[in-house]
Amino acid sequence: MKKTLVMKFGGTSVGSADALKNVVQIIRDAKKDWGRVVVVTSAMSGVTNLLLDSAAAASQGKLDSLSETESSLRAKHFAAADALVPDSARREALKAEIEKLIQTQMNLCKAVAVLGEASPRALDVVASLGERMSVRLLAAVVESGGVRAEALEASEFIVTDGEFQNAHPDLGITVEKTRRRLNPLLDENVVPIVTGFIGATAEGQVTTLGRGGSDYSAALIGFALPANEVWIWTDVNGVMTTDPRIAPNAQTLPEISYNEIAELAYYGAKVLHPKTIRPVVEAGIGLRICNTFNPSHPGTRLTANGHSNGSKEKPEKVIKAVTAIRCQRLVTIEGRGMLGVPGVAARAFSAVASTGTSVPLITQASSEQSICFAIPADTAPSILRALEKVFKHEIVRQDIDRIWSTEDVTIVTVVGAGMRHMAGVSGKVFSQLGANDVNILAIAQGSSEVSISFVVDHVNTETAVKSLHELIVR
Ligand code: ASP
Ligand code: MG
To answer: Is residue 382 exposed (0-12), middle (13-18) or buried (19+ Cβ within 10 Å)?
Structure first.
């Protein structure tokens, strides 16, 4: 039985004619080694934002930049078609299909402007157009490169609920439909080129899996077939020890465990969509992250525990990576009347949840006199309002003295599964921050002990990340 590989290409990897050339070569090479290859692609870089921005402008009645959007969508896709699809009949057919999708966007924006609003359902149709264009482009380019390929819309077989903009797949039906749709093509030696990011409800309404969701699409397809491996092709050499824009000596991690990468993805390192990991782990599928602009680099392999070189690891290497989420605020609810009163935290977090915000970090002092948690800065006003409303009686009775939020802060997270077995790692981390004059506003340690997070003032972001990164790369 031939082995199956799913490869996902991100927006920059398919973002220009030059980038697409590398992708074709990568697909050609993979086809030789693997036999059964499925490709999942994002929209060309910038396209999803362009589509959503023009719909948002339209919902405020602004259509003046629509023709600019129209020509830039056309220019981007047609330039790649002109460069990489030499056969004129195939090229013209491709352009006609892309033009149809561009006109769909124009009509949607005009309709949105008339209605004065864009529903989540309409926005998913808008957002889906980027991938629907890129699969057609990539399939034509791959075929022009001598590999049989077919463009497919995942709305045919990834079946989701109706939570537009963040839809959840129904795994049972998706597995069955994906196999039924893809296996015959794979049996015929054709490379299916599938839209990332999108699915459809059982009734056939287009949905999206959330921004950056193409990785998740690849994982779902890998899970469904099942594939032997899923490779995520992006524009960096795998998972880095930190953001190289902050610390130029950042290095690629040859291996990282699923637990560790889950923490990283959650804490702002934009390596993988967080939902990608679970289906792949459950099916025991190998996952790899690699760089289309440097395909011979081995990238990063995901492993079950990340310790294949366990005992050889130097103690200071227990810290694998440092990451930062900026633009957060710390909200504190404080008051002596909270002592021993059950349910305060529950009410606080359900008030936060009612605003649709998820909370990345929570701490509570054992005195029970304050609860403190982080939230994205732009959600602070609505969250403070919601909290003041639920606790209005406690505030009147002065059981709660104050509900307030800080200015912008950053959550800095240190990730490494080895921390579980190493006393003193957190001590080392604190001393390093202290030695660099970084004041810590709050601390949280994940119960998995795979990460420790600190909240620091936003002005200390770079110093905190750089100095902690020195504990990894010396
Ligand atoms: N194109 C979608 C986005 O920009 C999905 C993806 O790129 O993964 O969010
Ligand atoms: Mg992405």
So the answer is: middle
211 CA: nearest ligand 1 atom? 9
- First-to-last alpha carbon distance for the chain, in angstroms, is 46
- The residue nearest atom 6 of ligand 1, judged by CA position, is 212
Is 195 a pocket residue for ligand 1 (Cβ < 6 Å)?
no
Which tokens go with 153?
């819309």
- The per-residue pLDDT for range 184-196, each reduced to its tens digit, is 999 999 999 999 9
411 in helix, strand or coil?
Answer: strand
- For residue 120, is pLDDT > 80? yes
Domain annotation for the chain: domains and CATH numbers: 4-235 (3.40.1160.10)
Q: Label residue 400 by pLDDT band (50, 70, 90).
A: very high
Cβ–ligand 1 contact at 213 (below 6 Å): yes
Q: Which of 200-204, 316-320, 334-338, 426-430 has the lowest mean pLDDT?
A: 316-320
Quick: pLDDT tens for 199-211.
999 999 999 999 9
The DSSP output letter for 137 is H
CA distance 195 to 459: 40
User: Which residues are registered as beta bridge partners of 224?
Assistant: none
Q: Where are the alpha helices (DSSP H) in 145-288?
A: 171-187, 214-224, 258-266, 277-282
CB 168 within 8 A of CB 197: no
- 136-140, 168-172, 346-350: range with lowest mean pLDDT: 346-350
Does the C-beta of 210 come closer than 6 Å to ligand 1? Answer: no
* Nearest protein CA to atom 5 of ligand 1, as residue: 212
